[in-house]
TrEMBL record:
Pfam families in the cross-refs: ABC_tran (PF00005)
Name this protein carries in UniProt: ABC transporter
Family annotation (PANTHER family): ABC TRANSPORTER ATP-BINDING PROTEIN, ABC TRANSPORTER ATP-BINDING PROTEIN NATA
Species of the source: Roseomonas fluvialis
TM region positions: none
Keyword field contains Membrane: no
Amino acid sequence: MGAMNPPALLVEALTKTYAAGTAPAVDGLTFTLPMGQTWGLLGGNGAGKSTTIAMLLGLLVPTSGRVVALGHDMARDRFAALARMNFSSPYIALPHRLTVTENLRVYADLYGVPDAKRRIADLVEQFALGDFATRPAGQLSAGQKTRVALAKALVNQPALLLLDEPTASLDPDTGDWVRTTLEAYAAQSGASILLASHNMAEVERLCSNVLMLKGGRVVDEGSPAALLEKYGRDDLEEVFLDIARGRARAEAVA
Ligand SMILES: Nc1ncnc2c1ncn2[C@@H]1O[C@H](COP(=O)(O)OP(=O)(O)OP(=O)(O)O)[C@@H](O)[C@H]1O
């Protein structure tokens, strides 16, 4: 049984080694995401962001370590947690022959959404999907697919939302609109969001705390403001590059 007010995510020594004898893709990751906060997972290509998210969702079995989502241990009690979670990832395609509305209906039914018809109508309006709601998902542009994927991610009004690159392939205006929508959703629902991103401006705007990943380990963490101060930088991109290149603060400000 979960505690009265469990954190959104409790992650303990989470490790994934894809093949024996190779370096772990995720190596002893430990953090606690409180309810109601949005955190960022930052790291270069291959840092372990997608592997982490796949384990948090129970899509990938950890080599060792533990994930407790919304008070439910993912190794034992995954479905209780998944009902109140959702995600979007550019690596997971929506069934491409189904129309946008049919896709949303499939996911609404999977998640047991009450009054699914009404919820889908609301999402179509909120995400401005009306122009292509009856087109097969496979025929949409990358940006349109991203919007549908986000609508799908909110279909069950999740308490915990895991987003892998939520604004990849969106034009700046649409990207900005998606950020506003996510902010509003978190504020109105009290949901927690974990966001993997390469977009530093996005992370600075949305996240109260950032985990900097390198080689599957957290090499630094803090609020965007604290990280900027610590590294003596003006934007998170510079902090990120300092960390990626292994520069300490003294060298970074020199
Ligand atoms: N299915 C797999 N089999 C073997 N190795 C894998 C597999 N998936 C990922 N890896 C390796 O695990 C490491 C972490 O990859 P991961 O995709 O989690 O990183 P990422 O931070 O999401 O990267 P990106 O920003 O490029 O998406 C990389 O070295 C990658 O090559």
